[in-house]
């Protein structure tokens, strides 16, 4: 039976439907997959873009950054907008705009215009990312919210594997422009599907006025400056320090805005604050996935790139297996309680990875990586559900936006910490071990931060 108020709150709560609209949930997952794939999949096209425009490797990094930074900038403002906007109208605008700017990217005659079109893609795609939490709360009953989030996560996980594998084939058969045309078609289909499934209040598009612009300039600018501080940490520490100071200043300005008062009050809730800090720190596991493991396999085991990809797919496979289980458990026993259990399982799964040595075989390492994925699948979806349950229904969009933003910060922080630890070691194996220990320490802090608010006893909207 259900044991926490997270799953026993009355269905009559504001904005809570009487039954879950699974069409909207699955369409949202498909749309999110396209938005996320717009960055990760295009990474395989960077060498072709470099050759096509005769630019440097460093310049091609902006093909990804120009997409990611605007997405991070608009997320919080979009979440606040979602709390008072027509969700269907904004969702269709976001995916329709993503389709248009995907076509503009494919047609870009110069590298500068490609970067501009990619920035527009990220900016308008970020609208959907920022309002995902509100759509979930509006389309799913509270008793099935964990399963709804797990369906979105599972669709994105499996879809990311398929799109990642197909990206190289599409580029080989056509070009990097052909890959962008594929995203144009997928985004257009998603826009039509969102128009048919996402709930609407009939108010149409909101006014994107001064308040929205100030919100993006302050909160968005703070996030972009914070993320940019990581980019220059190893090459120019003074630029990194300046970016960090800019982030703090813009963040302070954002808190001083009159319209930010409800959001600041939400962030001061102990359960919400603890959950966001925990999610940020737990997301640093990306330091192992995106830095530690690839360099370990390349520098220590001398594994070919394609085998490195297969070994890392073990993590995604593990997440795919346990994500539905985590959603069901969150609905049955409470999202806070299960996310705490999941965090403990992640820590336990890290232990075998701390004991990796020169004689550890590739299959053995893949199994250990898979176990980490299994544990993370139990943590991830319940944690998202716990965050949404910790906010009042009228602030679900804001909570969802911070959920996406803190995860982005954490996944950016992890590889930076791992790289720093690696640089302090004398051998590649020692570099991996130092990196793994540092990430493990961050995850311990993340688990402890979550425990401070006693999530197993937290009540929804209390």
Quote the average pLDDT.
84
The chain-level structural class is: mainly alpha
Q: What is the assembly state of the chains in this entry?
A: single chain
Question: Strand share of the residues?
Answer: under 5%
Task: Please work out how many helical segments DSSP would assign.
Answer: 17
Notes on the protein architecture:
The chain has 462 residues and is mostly helical. It has 3 domains: 16-200, MFS general substrate transporter like domains (Growth Hormone, Chain: A), CATH 1.20.1250.20; 211-268; 269-462, Up-down Bundle (Growth Hormone, Chain: A). The protein is 78% helix and 0% strand. The chain has 17 helices and no strands. It has helices at residues 22-40, 46-53, 57-82, 87-107, 111-139, 145-173, 176-197, 210-231, 237-255, 261-267, 270-282, 286-300, 305-333, 335-354, 362-389, 396-423, 428-451. Helix 1 (22-40) runs antiparallel to helix 7 and helix 6 runs antiparallel to helix 13. The longest helix is centred in the N-terminal third of the chain and has 29 residues, at 111-139. It is globular, with a radius of gyration of 21 Å. It starts with 21 loop residues before the first helix and ends in an 11-residue tail after the last helix.
Give the arrangement of secondary structure elements.
Layout: H1 22-40, H2 46-53, H3 57-82, H4 87-107, H5 111-139, H6 145-173, H7 176-197, H8 210-231, H9 237-255, H10 261-267, H11 270-282, H12 286-300, H13 305-333, H14 335-354, H15 362-389, H16 396-423, H17 428-451
Helix pairs in contact: 1-5, 1-6, 1-7, 2-3, 3-5, 3-8, 3-16, 4-5, 4-7, 5-16, 6-7, 6-13, 6-15, 8-9, 8-16, 11-16, 11-17, 12-13, 12-16, 12-17, 13-14, 13-15, 14-15, 14-17, 15-16, 16-17
């Amino acid at each position: 039976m259900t044991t926490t108020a997270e799953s026993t709150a009355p269905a009559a709560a504001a904005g809570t439907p009487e039954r879950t609209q699974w069409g909207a949930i699955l369409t949202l997952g498909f749309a999110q997959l396209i938005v996320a794939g717009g960055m990760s999949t295009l990474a395989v096209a960077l060498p072709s873009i470099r050759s096509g425009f005769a630019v440097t490797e460093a310049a091609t990094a902006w093909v990804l950054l120009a997409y990611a930074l605007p997405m991070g900038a608009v997320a919080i403002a979009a979440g606040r907008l979602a709390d008072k906007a027509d969700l269907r109208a904004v969702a269709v605008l976001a995916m329709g705009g993503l389709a248009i700017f995907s076509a503009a990217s494919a047609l870009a005659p110069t590298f500068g215009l490609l970067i501009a079109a990619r920035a527009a893609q990220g900016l308008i795609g970020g609208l959907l990312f920022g309002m995902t939490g509100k759509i979930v709360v509006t389309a799913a009953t509270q008793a099935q919210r964990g399963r709804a989030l797990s369906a979105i996560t599972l669709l994105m996980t499996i879809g990311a594997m398929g799109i990642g594998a197909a990206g190289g084939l599409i580029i080989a058969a056509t070009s990097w422009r052909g890959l962008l045309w594929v995203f144009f078609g997928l985004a257009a289909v998603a826009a039509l599907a969102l128009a048919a499934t996402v709930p609407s209040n009939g108010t149409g598009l909101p006014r994107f006025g001064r308040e929205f612009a100030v919100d993006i300039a302050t909160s968005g600018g703070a996030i972009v400056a914070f993320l940019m501080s990581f980019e220059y940490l190893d090459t120019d520490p003074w630029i990194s320090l300046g970016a960090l100071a800019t982030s703090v200043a813009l963040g302070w300005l954002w808190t001083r805005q009159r319209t930010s008062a409800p959001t600041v009050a939400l962030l001061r809730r102990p359960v919400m604050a603890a959950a966001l800090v925990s999610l940020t720190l737990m997301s640093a596991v990306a330091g192992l996935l995106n830095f530690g493991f690839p360099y370990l396999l390349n520098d220590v085991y001398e594994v070919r790139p394609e085998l490195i990809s297969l070994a890392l797919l073990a993590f995604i496979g593990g997440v795919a297996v346990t994500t539905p289980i985590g959603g069901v458990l969150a609905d049955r026993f409470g999202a806070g309680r299960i996310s705490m259990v999941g965090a403990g399982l992640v820590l336990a799964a890290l232990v075998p990875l701390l004991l990796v040595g020169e004689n550890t075989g590739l299959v053995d390492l893949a199994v250990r990586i898979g176990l980490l994925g299994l544990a993370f699948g139990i943590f991830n979806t319940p944690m998202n559900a716990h965050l949404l349950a910790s906010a009042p229904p009228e602030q679900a969009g804001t909570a969802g936006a911070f959920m996406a933003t803190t995860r982005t910060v954490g996944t950016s922080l992890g590889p930076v910490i791992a790289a720093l630890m690696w640089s302090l070691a004398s051998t590649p194996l020692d570099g991996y071990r130092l990196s793994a220990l540092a990430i493990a320490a961050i995850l311990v802090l993340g688990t402890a931060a979550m425990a401070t608010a006693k999530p197993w006893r937290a009540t929804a909207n209390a």
